[in-house]
Amino acid sequence: MYRILQLSLRPEVWVQVCANLWDMRVHVYLDEDLVAELDELVGDRGRSSFIEDAVRAQVDRERRWRAIWSAVGSVADGGHDWDPDPAAWVHEQRRRDTEHREAKLQPDVKG
Q1: Which of 2, 26, 31, 88, CA to CA, is 20 to 30 A from 47?
Q2: Taking the model in full, what pTM does it have?
């Protein structure tokens, strides 16, 4: 079973990855200019690692975007603590966080 994935490392460059889903090895076809640029950055011995990192980053981004889009509409439009003044609410939350963090950093003094 093979699957073709299209990934964008930059908006103007698309990479097609043909992966055998049962094996660890994949075959990647890249434009010659892109390979030259890749070799200039990481050398021919660093290609696999660089491509693996790029694929991981793109998969992570895609997973995050899917989670974000799946949450759209899950928060009610009203009835929140922040509705009257969102800026004041955020300011208060940050103040509390700072106080909490500073309290944790204080030495524990026992009498």
Answers
A1: 2
A2: 0.51
